[in-house]
Write a structure and sequence with these properties.
Blueprint lengths: L2 H9 L3 H18 L16 E5 L2 E4 H15 L5 H27 L6 H14 L7 H7 L4 H21 L8 H13 L4 E10 L7 H16 L4 H8 L10 E6 L5 H8 L10 E3 L2 E12 L9 E10 L6 H7 L1 H8 L4 H10 L9 E4 L5 H9 L9 E2 L3 E11 L6 H27 L2 E3 L2
Antiparallel strand pairs: 1-2, 1-11, 3-4, 3-6, 5-6, 7-8, 7-10, 9-10
């Protein structure tokens, strides 16, 4: 927070100079504001300064409007106790949004008018609000439309920043996907949970109690019938917030140990108490459960790539194997279907755009034995007979109830980007000048 520096700085200024500085900061903030920066600096409406973030002002008026939005979004009664409980979280959110907007401005990431209009249309559609009535609905419920617009702008600009800055650096390898796939297959008979979450982080122990108080209130609201998706979109700081907190199907043991314990005790629709995790307080709700049963071989789909060298000259198997020694050695070192496909193409076996897909029982006996057991993304040993040499690689092995590799890739990507974006925002906070005035 750099409070010690700020106290020294202010002590060197007399009262008149401090008033001038405050007014100057307000003017600078006003001039610098625009579509990227929410209107934190309307001088005529400012009673006090709630916080200074680098060279920008967050007013008590801005804070009050954001609290009103959070109260409405969480379905809480608009009481003094609820407003006071939400104040630390609301101020933290405003600070984070301002830091995100400042970073976007530094990187020359901009919003366009269509970004906002498209977002509002999506909100109207998902909430069954008549077209063009969103603004009127907010104002009818006593919620500042400018506060809502500010939040929407900040979310969009941060998503743009994450896509430009973080997403290109994330790579999900074929072996990583294969590991998840093998684990799914080995989970036959185990319980999976469809889970939604709300993550409320805190930076230090001084914030721990207030965040826990908020988490308890939100947990109670969800139990009382408030949709966790609405709570997540307004309060959660996880990447799943944009999807209403939905993190998909989770098997036991996949999350933090405390979360796993909580999931095992919840029925469908059940909501956990706040769980302290390394990332903050977490609330989870079990949306559904399912048991993975043994799979009928007739239902298993196999997607594969292959290398084939036909024995057109009718040479002996020994000569056939010798003639393909270099190709066999090259392919044995390949990992992942993309690399295998490119290499097989270079070695003379044309490749289709997508892997070939068969039901397991459609393969001949030799191929079926190999395809049913071989590790995903690993080349098989050469299958040799008098007609040909064949090497295969299984890309996917699935039933209609299992995730595809693309779905697994998307889940892993979301988790990785989520972690990186939280770290990015944490670093922005640590390097910023933040002066809390309330």
């Amino acid at each position: 927070m750099k409070k010690s520096f700020n106290l020294l700085f202010r002590s060197a200024l007399n009262k008149a100079a401090r008033c001038f500085l405050v007014n100057l900061l307000i003017i600078i903030s006003f001039l610098a504001s625009g579509v990227l920066i929410p209107s934190y600096s309307r001088a005529q409406e400012v009673d006090r300064i709630a916080a200074i973030v680098n060279d920008k002002i967050i007013s008590t008026h801005d804070l009050k409007e954001r609290i009103e939005l959070l109260v409405f979004s969480a379905g809480l009664k608009n009481t003094q106790s609820h407003r006071q409980a939400l104040e630390p979280q609301a101020l933290r959110v405003l600070i984070d949004e301002l830091l995100q907007s400042q970073e976007a401005r530094r990187l020359n990431i901009r919003l366009v008018t269509r970004d906002i209009s498209d977002a509002i249309k999506r909100i109207e559609k998902s909430n069954k609000i008549p077209y063009g009535q969103f603004k009127d609905l907010m104002e009818k419920n006593g919620v500042s439309y400018e506060a809502v617009l500010s939040k929407i702008q900040s979310e969009i600009i941060w998503q743009k920043l994450v896509r430009r800055r973080l997403l290109p650096s994330v790579e999900i390898g074929e072996e990583e996907i294969s590991n998840v796939y093998r684990r799914i297959i080995s989970d036959s008979g185990q319980i999976q949970y469809r889970v939604s979450e709300v993550l409320l982080p805190f930076d230090d122990d001084s914030q721990k109690k207030s965040v826990l108080d908020l988490a308890n209130r939100l947990s109670l609201q969800i139990r009382s019938g408030e949709k966790i998706s609405d709570i997540a979109q307004q309060f959660s700081k996880s990447a799943s917030a944009s999807k209403g907190g939905d993190i998909g199907w989770i098997r036991m043991g996949e999350l933090d140990n405390k979360v796993n314990t909580a999931l095992s005790s919840l029925t469908i629709g059940g909501v956990s108490n706040p769980i302290l995790t390394p990332n903050g307080y977490l609330i989870v709700q079990v949306k559904n459960k399912r048991k993975l049963g043994n799979t009928n071989p007739d239902e298993i789909l196999i997607s594969l790539r292959q290398y084939i060298f036909s024995n057109k000259l009718n040479i002996s198997i020994k000569e056939l194997k010798k003639k393909n020694a270099a190709a066999i050695k090259t392919l044995s070192n390949k990992v992942g279907c993309r690399e295998f496909s490119r290499t097989a193409e270079k070695l003379g076996t044309p490749q289709t755009e997508l892997p070939l897909t068969f039901r397991l029982n459609e393969l001949n006996e030799d191929l079926r034995k190999v395809a049913s057991k071989i590790m995903l993304g690993k080349p098989s040993k050469p299958l040799i007979n008098t007609e040909k040499i064949q090497i295969i690689m299984v890309c996917e092995r699935q039933t209609s109830k299992q995730l595809t590799r693309n779905q697994i890739r998307e889940t892993l990507l979301r988790q990785r980007v989520d972690m990186l974006s939280r770290r990015y925002l944490r670093d922005l906070r640590r390097s910023a000048f933040i002066d809390l005035r309330i």
